[in-house]
Amino acid sequence: GTQRWMLQIGAGAAEITPTTTEGQVTFSRRQFAVWYAGGYRSATSARMAGVHAESAQPLATLVACTARHEPWMPDHF
Fold it and tell me: pTM for this one?
């Protein structure tokens, strides 16, 4: 089955925990990786990539967390 995770962001930190509740923004693991790397420069680009949001505000807030940085990922994790 599909696993759901809740991403909570606050005070410069983030926490991911398993959940059964519906989120305000829903995306795949691949879309999460793009967001985490700063690949979505706007809420519109995230929507065009298939990220689902119940309304514009939660998606805009999520994108704003990473959009101010240039997209980047280390070569090795």
Answer: 0.76
Question: What residues make up the domain containing 29?
Answer: 24-77
> With bands split at pLDDT 50, 70 and 90, how would you rate the model's confidence at 77?
low
- Please report whether residue 48 resides in a domain: yes
Query: For residue 59, how many other CB atoms are within 10 A of its CB?
Result: 22
Q: Which residues contact 20 (CB under 8 A, 6 or more apart)?
A: 4
| 18 assigned to some structural domain | no
Q: Burial code of 17-38, b = ≥16 C-beta within 10 A, e = fewer?
A: eeeeeeeebebeeebeebbeeb
